[in-house]
From TrEMBL:
Pfam families documented for this protein: PDZ (PF00595)
Classification via InterPro entries: PDZ, PDZ_sf, Synaptic_Scaffolding_LAP-MAGUK
Protein name (Swiss-Prot/TrEMBL): Synaptojanin-2-binding protein
Molecular function per GO: protein kinase binding
Gene Ontology CC: basolateral plasma membrane; cell junction; mitochondrial outer membrane
Keywords attached to this entry: Membrane, Mitochondrion, Mitochondrion outer membrane, Transmembrane, Transmembrane helix
């Protein structure tokens, strides 16, 4: 698959052999069904554990598929992309842009690892405490002659 402009270390080539149930993953996106705002790319939305992609383990939900068997998916409608997958043959080569670890707008809806629900409770408790202190100061101010 020569001639691609993608040279990012996050771009990988994955070869899959179609199994009895196909390639074993679902896609979303396309120029007619943008999955991510201002990005008409094709993304992996679901991987079947017992499918070809699930057993291989390299393709992940949220990955962007750049090409299939050398055919770029950029500018394709969802329907056209699905047809390319259906007619790709038994041995399929995918060029994939791996999702970034802190990608928050994709199929997984994941959050960066450094965020914790505990921090939200801490902020909420601090705001409640501050409100209580201001209330006391205000009440004392009103009760002075």
């Amino acid at each position: 698959m020569n001639g691609f402009l993608y040279s990012s270390p996050n771009v990988v080539d994955i070869k899959l052999k179609r199994g009895p149930a196909g390639l074993g993953f679902n896609i979303v996106g396309g120029v007619d069904q943008q999955y991510i705002m201002n990005d008409s790319g094709i993304y992996v939305s679901k991987i079947k554990e017992d499918g070809a992609a699930g057993l291989d383990g390299r393709l992940q939900e949220g990955d962007k598929i750049l090409a299939i068997n050398g055919v770029k998916l950029e500018g394709q409608t969802h329907r056209d992309a699905v047809e390319l997958f259906r007619t790709a043959g038994e041995d399929v080569e995918l060029r994939v842009l791996k999702k970034s670890p802190c990608h928050t707008n994709g199929p997984n809806g994941s959050q960066p690892e450094h965020q914790s629900p505990v921090s939200y409770w801490t902020v909420l408790a601090a705001l409640a405490g501050a409100a209580a202190i201001f209330s006391l100061i205000y009440i004392r101010h009103l009760s002075k002659p």
